[in-house]
Structure formats: C-alpha cells, structure tokens
Write a sequence for this structure.
C-alpha cells in the first residue's frame, strides 16, 4: 500500500491538472448536492472552509448558507496545527492567513464548541476538506492534523467531506485517531456509511 505522503503527492498533482471547465462543472454539481442534504437544510450552524488553490471553490456554498439564514464559520489556522472557527458573512471580509489561505477576521465572533451543550443545542453541519479519500470515506489531509485535533472532543451533527472524483483512491492507510466524515461528496457520488463502494450517478 502507498504511504500517505506518496498518495498526497500523486493526488495533488492530479487535482492541479484538472481542466478549468471540468473543475467548474464539478464544483456546481458538488455544491448542488450539498445544498440538498437534509443535514445541511436542518442546520443552524455551518462550519465551512474556504477553498484555496486547486481545491473546490466553496465560496458560493458559504454565501448561499448565509442567505439561507445559517450562522457560518470558517477556520483560522495556526502554525502549531490548531484551529478555531470564526464568523463568515461575505467574501470581501476574508484576509490572507496561514499559508496564504483566505480566512475570516479573528475580531469577529468565534464558534465556541465548548458552549453548545445546552438544553436545545443548535444543529451543526461541517464541511470538511481533504487531499485524498477512499470508498470507505477514509481521509488524507494536508499532513498537519487540524481536523483530527479539532474533532477529537467535538462532533457536529453531520460532517460532509468534499473532493473531486480524481481525489478518490483505492485505499487510504487507516490510523486509530482518524476522523471519518459521515458523507463523502464528489461530482459523481455521495458516499455514506451504507455505501462504502464508489458509485456514480451520471444523470
């Protein structure tokens, strides 16, 4: 089996090579699937991320979530591999942050995962990035462990990972601390616990 480092390098190269027209078409399909998810529709809070470089452009999804009345937060990452989520309202307020990734201002509202255990807690939907995934929803991130650390003591109501079809590999090496998303969404498939084999819906 390939190591995570080799898979990461190979898949990032494939993602970088995607033609722009295919990238835009895939983005539209993925965002359409996200907006139709019951977990998203029921959510009060969306923990998203801002796509960077050759990642899926998530800004249209984040902006629609704001229009849909969700409280939207995006990560602010630190060099010590920790992150916190801060309020996102519009793309114009984003600034360049860790490794030049666009992020919201830390002067805004921070999502406090330790203060949501109330009598009627909000429904929380998380959008998760990744470099590579397999048909069992196992994930390879960028190597810093931001999400594994953040989710070690906190679980949103639903976690949906998104990637392009070219980022699906045969098998990802599993580790005991890995966090699996509930759903994995590409332009051609939605995988969950009951569908752990890659399936296409080319309609």
């Amino acid at each position: 089996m390939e190591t995570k480092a080799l898979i990461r390098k190979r898949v990032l190269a494939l993602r970088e090579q995607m033609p722009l027209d295919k990238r835009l078409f895939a983005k539209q399909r993925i965002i359409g699937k996200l907006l139709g998810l019951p977990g998203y529709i029921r959510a009060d809070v969306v923990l998203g991320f801002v796509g960077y470089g050759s990642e899926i452009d998530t800004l249209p999804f984040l902006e629609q979530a704001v229009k849909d009345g969700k409280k939207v937060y995006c990560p602010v990452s630190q060099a010590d591999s920790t992150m916190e989520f801060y309020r996102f309202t519009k793309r114009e307020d984003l600034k360049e942050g860790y490794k030049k990734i666009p992020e919201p201002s830390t002067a805004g509202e921070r999502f406090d995962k330790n203060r949501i255990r109330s009598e009627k807690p909000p429904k929380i939907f998380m959008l998760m990035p990744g470099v590579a995934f397999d048909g069992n929803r196992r994930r390879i991130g960028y190597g810093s462990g931001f999400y594994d650390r953040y989710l070690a003591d906190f679980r949103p109501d639903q976690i949906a990972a998104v990637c392009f079809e070219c980022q699906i590999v045969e098998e990802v090496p599993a580790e005991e601390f890995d966090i699996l998303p509930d759903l994995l969404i590409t332009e051609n498939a939605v995988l969950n616990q009951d569908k752990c084999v890659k399936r296409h819906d080319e309609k």
